Structure to design on (370 residues):
């Protein structure tokens, strides 16, 4: 049977490298609860991401949910619906009201022109998403946040290693959350982190990820268990050694895709953002059905028949999910609506071979002429 090409594939170190890294765990018998590897990974990540503080979590979702809790927010939070459901869940599970802002049609991040009209006296924060690793307009967002005294927490799940004008993406806003899930540019199997520069969040986050424990007899608040364990941290230590190579390999795949698909009428590619060092996390395309001749959904099905498994990240919009439609007043977000109906993310991972990219593009282009 022909090989399946899935939307992504986890990058892993050699088994020898991982075994060497975890060997000391058998000596220490220290498996979790902020052990030596956990601490070492935090230090390494601070250097790599150019940030003052890093707090590790068992996954990106709990990292986001916890930092929102740490900020002690109330009322309404402005965010976008064109994202993975985790972003919206993290807001709602903190008892806050998500207020959906539209995205722009060029890089699919929050439309900064539309934020101000959504701010009310109940607004306490903005949670923008660096979707696909595309960078939000961080300067405009910060200006608004300063003007209205709002917190800014970036969902940077897709943006590990991205830089703007030489600055790490995690340096912006009050905090940023990165996901280290198996499907991401950098993985710790499952995992995530919050980056921030204000020291006051350090202890808060440490406590929130560990049941709110201050010491053996003092529990400060109602909080979950969201700690990263030593096996996850060990995977992170190994994968971080290869991150440069990982991003370079992805870059080559993206360049090959662009070479094939840029000239195709009816297929719109994500922009190359000026002054940004990309991490090549995802490869979304927008299908203009009227021009291309067939719909996004039809392409998705036809690729599947050829064992190519693309995904509709991010369709449907989180604002149209049953759990949100029934609970909150939903604003109109016409651009996000339109993009979600046209978008398809093509397979992308470091070890995707050039002949596989050629096959994907060939199959796609042939559909047009049918
Ligand atoms: N915010 C945003 C904007 C996010 O995109 C995400 C996660 C989060 C927050 C939350 O972060 P985490 O709590 O997850 O750290 C996947 C990922 O599970 C999820 O992490 C990711 N976003 C989302 C966009 O994609 P699914 O349901 O599409 O995953 P699944 O199981 O269908 O896997 C997709 C493909 O990945 C598979 O076809 C093959 C490959 N794969 C998958 C796994 C599990 C591997 O190669 N290895 C693996 O171990 O959600």
């Amino acid at each position: 049977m022909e090989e399946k090409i899935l939307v992504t594939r986890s990058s892993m170190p050699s088994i020898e490298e991982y075994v060497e890294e975890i060997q000391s765990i058998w000596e220490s018998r220290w498996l979790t609860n902020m052990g030596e590897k956990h601490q070492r990974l935090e230090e390494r990540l601070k250097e790599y991401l150019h940030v003052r503080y890093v707090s590790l979590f068992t996954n990106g979702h709990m990292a986001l949910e916890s930092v929102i809790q740490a900020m002690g927010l109330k009322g309404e939070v402005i965010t976008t619906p064109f994202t993975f459901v985790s972003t919206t869940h993290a807001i709602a599970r903190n008892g806050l009201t998500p207020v959906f802002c539209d995205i722009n049609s060029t890089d699919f991040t929050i439309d900064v022109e539309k934020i101000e009209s959504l701010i009310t006296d109940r607004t306490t924060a903005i949670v923008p998403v660096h979707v696909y690793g595309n960078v939000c307009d961080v300067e405009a967002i910060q200006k608004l946040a300063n003007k209205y005294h709002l917190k800014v927490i970036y969902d940077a799940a897709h943006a590990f290693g991205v830089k703007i004008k030489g600055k790490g993406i995690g340096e912006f806003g009050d905090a940023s959350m990165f996901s280290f899930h198996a499907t991401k540019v950098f993985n710790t199997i499952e995992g995530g982190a919050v980056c921030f520069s204000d020291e006051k969040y350090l202890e808060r986050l440490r406590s929130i990820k560990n049941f709110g424990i201050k010491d053996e007899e003092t529990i400060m608040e109602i909080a979950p268990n969201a700690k990263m364990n030593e096996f996850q941290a060990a995977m992170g230590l190994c994968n971080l050694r290869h991150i440069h190579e990982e991003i370079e390999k992805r870059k080559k795949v993206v360049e090959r895709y662009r070479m094939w698909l840029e000239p195709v009428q009816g297929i719109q590619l994500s922009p190359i953002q000026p002054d940004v060092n990309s991490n090549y996390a995802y490869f979304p395309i927008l299908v203009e059905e009227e021009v291309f001749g067939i719909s996004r959904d039809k392409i998705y099905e036809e690729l599947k028949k050829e064992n190519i498994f693309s995904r509709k990240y991010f369709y449907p919009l989180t604002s149209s999910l049953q759990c949100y439609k029934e609970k909150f007043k939903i604003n109109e977000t016409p651009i996000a609506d339109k993009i979600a109906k046209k978008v398809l993310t093509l397979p992308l991972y470091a070890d995707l071979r050039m002949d596989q990219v050629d096959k994907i593009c060939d199959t796609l282009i042939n559909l047009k002429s049918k």
